[in-house]
Design goal:
Blueprint: H1 3-14, H2 41-51, H3 53-57, H4 76-93, H5 98-107, H6 116-126, H7 133-148, H8 155-162, H9 173-196, H10 207-213, H11 217-231, H12 240-258, H13 261-283, H14 290-299, H15 301-310, H16 314-325
Helix pairs in contact: 2-5, 4-5, 4-9, 4-11, 5-8, 5-9, 6-13, 7-8, 8-9, 9-11, 9-12, 10-12, 13-15, 13-16, 14-15
C-alpha cells in the first residue's frame, strides 16, 4: 500500500459520511491521468494551483485599496490565504475533506482582474454577456494556465471555484464552506484595512452587529465559524441571529467602504485604465503575447482581450497604460 492509498484509508475512518472522499473510482478529470503514489487527486490540484503563475500574480492585485504603499494592506493573495485558513478550520471541525476545501479556496480568485471588483465591473460593462471573476477563474485553470494547456483539475475543485460567488450551489459541502469563508474573510479584513486607512472608525460599526459578532476581527471570525459548525445539519449556514448580524455588517461595508467617495476617485482612474486597455487591444490584438493571440483565433478577440487584461497585476496594467499613453522623452 503506497502513501496515497494509506491517505484514502485514513479518510474512510476519519471523514464524515457526507464528506467528499478521495477514493472515487470514476475519473474526476477531463483528461485521464495516472494516479500519484503520494498525493490524492485533491492534493495534486492544490499543488498545481499553488505553483501556477496566476496564483503568484495575486500578490500584486488589489483587494480593496488600490496600489497600497503599506505592506499591511491586504492583497488578493493574502485574502486567498485567509479564506483557505478559515475554510480549513470549518472543514476540519465538520470532518470534511480539508484538501478539497483548500484547493477550492486557493483557486477561487485566480481569474480576478487588476484593481479588484472595480476592474471586474469595468470589464463586465464592456464584454458582451458580462465578465464574472468566478467564471474567469475556471477558464484560467481549464484553458489559460500552462501556456494554454490548463491544469486539468478535478470536477469538484472546478465546481467549487465556479460556485463560490454564483447563485448556484456547489456539488460538495466543501465548496459551500469556501463560499462562506470567502465572505467571512473579506468583510472582516476589509474592516481592518478601512480603519487603518482612515475610511471609518471602530466606533462607527453597527452596534447590533458588534454585539452579536464581537468587537474585534478575531471575535467576529470566531463567532461566524462557530455558528456554521454548531448550526450544521447537512447545510453550511449560520444561525438566524448571526446571519442577520453578518448581513447588516456586509451592507454597512458596501455603504461606507466599497462605494465610499473618499477612495472612489482613484477607482475611477483604475476603471479608465481597464477601459482604455480593453479598447486598445481589441483594435490591436496582434500586440498581445502569443498565447492570447492564439486564444483570439480560437475564442474571439474580445474574449482573449478579457483573458489578457484580467490576468494583469495592478502595476502591470498601469505600466502598459503609461507606455501606451504617455509620450517618451527624447
Amino acid at each position: 500500500m503506497n502513501i496515497r492509498e494509506r491517505t484514502i484509508e485514513n479518510e474512510r475512518v476519519m471523514l464524515a459520511e457526507y464528506a467528499c472522499k478521495s477514493d472515487c473510482n470514476e475519473n474526476r478529470r477531463d483528461t485521464s491521468e495516472p494516479s500519484c503514489d503520494i498525493r490524492t487527486d485533491f492534493q495534486r490540484d492544490r499543488d498545481r494551483i499553488i505553483h501556477c503563475s496566476s496564483f503568484r500574480r495575486l500578490k500584486h492585485k488589489t483587494q480593496v485599496f488600490l496600489l497600497p504603499k503599506s505592506d499591511h494592506y491586504r492583497t488578493r493573495l493574502t485574502h486567498t490565504l485567509e479564506v483557505a485558513q478559515i475554510a480549513r478550520t470549518v472543514s476540519r471541525a465538520l470532518r470534511l475533506n480539508e484538501d478539497l476545501t483548500e484547493a477550492i479556496a486557493l483557486g477561487h480568485d485566480l481569474g480576478h482582474t487588476p484593481f479588484g471588483h472595480d476592474g471586474e465591473r469595468a470589464l463586465s460593462a464592456l464584454f458582451p454577456g458580462g465578465f464574472r471573476h468566478n467564471e474567469q477563474s475556471v477558464r484560467v485553470v481549464d484553458i489559460i494556465e500552462r501556456n494554454g494547456a490548463g491544469l486539468n483539475l478535478t470536477r469538484e475543485v472546478r465546481d467549487g471555484i465556479m460556485n463560490h460567488s454564483s447563485k448556484a450551489k456547489a456539488i460538495t459541502l466543501e465548496g459551500d464552506v469556501v463560499r462562506l469563508a470567502d465572505k467571512i474573510a473579506y468583510i472582516n479584513h476589509d474592516i481592518e484595512d478601512a480603519i487603518r486607512g482612515g475610511v471609518l472608525t471602530k466606533a462607527e460599526l453597527p452596534a447590533n452587529a458588534v454585539r452579536v459578532l464581537g468587537d474585534n476581527k478575531s471575535k467576529r471570525i470566531t463567532t461566524l465559524i462557530v455558528s456554521i459548525i454548531e448550526n450544521f445539519d447537512g447545510v453550511i449556514c449560520y444561525d438566524d441571529s448571526v446571519k442577520r448580524a453578518h448581513d447588516e455588517l456586509r451592507e454597512f461595508m458596501f455603504e461606507r467602504v466599497y462605494i465610499n467617495p473618499k477612495i472612489n476617485t482613484e477607482k475611477e482612474k483604475a476603471i479608465h485604465v481597464v477601459e482604455f486597455l480593453y479598447r486598445y487591444y481589441n483594435e490591436r490584438h496582434d500586440e498581445m503575447p502569443p498565447l492570447y493571440r492564439e486564444l483570439a483565433n480560437k475564442h474571439g478577440v474580445e474574449r482573449a482581450v478579457c483573458d489578457y487584461i484580467s490576468g494583469m497585476t495592478d502595476d502591470f496594467a498601469v505600466e502598459r497604460f503609461i507606455e501606451l499613453c504617455v509620450p517618451k522623452a527624447w
